[in-house]
Amino acid sequence: MSIVKVIEVIASSEKGLEDAIQNAVTEVSKTVRNLDSIFVKDIKCHVKDGKIQSYGVICKVSFRVE
Description:
By secondary structure, this protein is an alpha+beta fold. The chain is built from one helix and three strands, in the order E-H-E-E.
């Protein structure tokens, strides 16, 4: 039987939502092994002068514990 742990992370990107999510996975992968899935809990955009400047995501990341 596997044990799965869930952590919450925040990531951002100036390119778009998909890139922000990928940044979350990339950064978590540097210190956490056995990533299983990512759930986007919330989305946020920063706006300046009527234009989106950056995209942010709050994600729940699941991984199997050894």
